[in-house]
Amino acid sequence: MELRHLRYFVAIAEERHFGRAARRLRMTQPPLSRQIQELEAELGFSLFDRARRRVELTPAGVVLLARVRNLLEGLDFAVHEARRASVGEIGRVAVGYISSLAYSGITDLLRAFHERFPKVEIALREMSPQAQLDALKEGLIDVGLVRGSVDDASLASACVKRDPLVVALPAGHALTAHKRLPLELLAREPFVLFPRQRGPAFFDQIMSLCRDAGFTPRIVQEAPHLDILSLVAAGFGVAILPRSIRRAGRRGFVIRPIVGSPRADLFIAWRADDTSPALREFVGFVRSTFVEKGAD
After folding, report:
1. Domain 3-86 in CATH 1.10.10.10
2. Among 57, 58, 150, 192, which residue has the least CB neighbours within 10 Å?
3. Rounded CA gap, 87 and 110, in Å?
4. CA distance linking residue 153 with residue 271, whole number of Å
């Protein structure tokens, strides 16, 4: 039994006429009649009562028609959904992101993506940059949003945003008198910084900027990104962070631009051999969205 035989059967049952069904199917009547006869022979029972002028379904044909309609509708829906999945309109994407992005547009980004691709499920995981890269290679997430370049042949990546770096100072600190801070003025300041293993590329960038300014930071406290601001506000030290962190809603600290306007690059990364259409659409959407919005 072939699928086309079932479609022929449904057309005749709905038209109640072999000639009209043949025209609907864009074929001639004799081959259509032969196909139905072959189907009936294979099934072992008649589907149509041909004794009357108008073609009528036999009791067996009535039962089969209801089941076949459901079957064909289900098949058509499956093909439709599969076609949508093939172009990335349906699927699941597990996304890793750094904590600072919680205050830098990721909510608006995901809302806009969901509006455009409502059938794509997004699973979010807040992770350090290094944890994201490890999770990508292990297949635990599909895409990551990290600070700093990605140097791994198994991963593809693209820079999606360049975020200005700023100095976070405790409120009332003497250096807040400066509208823009030369980094060399921080040479004697205690620093609050995240552990290098959480984000080696961004950590090394901060170290390099300070060395270029003639000093090595004196790190007195280590903490995750969002906790850094609390420690700065509490007076433990100063910090160099992306400007987007200003949206964190914390009090007790002041940010100042850095002379020379250094920036931290935000990269999107994914497995180079991942061919998921949903992933492709997500990566393209993120890249185009950040390009349109520009730096924070």
Report:
1. yes
2. 58
3. 19
4. 9
Residue with tokens 């599969």: 82
One-letter identity of residue 115: E
Most confident of 90-94, 244-248, 266-270: 266-270
Model pTM score: 0.65
The alpha-carbon radius of gyration of the chain (Å, integer) is 32
Region 161-264: CATH code? 3.40.190.10
Q: For the chain, give the number of residues.
A: 296
Considering the domain 91-155+265-293 in this protein, what is its CATH number?
A: 3.40.190.10
Domains 91-155+265-293 and 161-264 agree in fold: yes
Nearest Cα neighbor of 181 from 221, 213, 149, 154 is 213
Are 57 and 17 in contact, with CB atoms under 8 Å apart?
Answer: no
CB 166 within 8 A of CB 104: no
The alpha carbon of 154 is separated from its chain's Cα centroid by a whole number of angstroms, namely 19
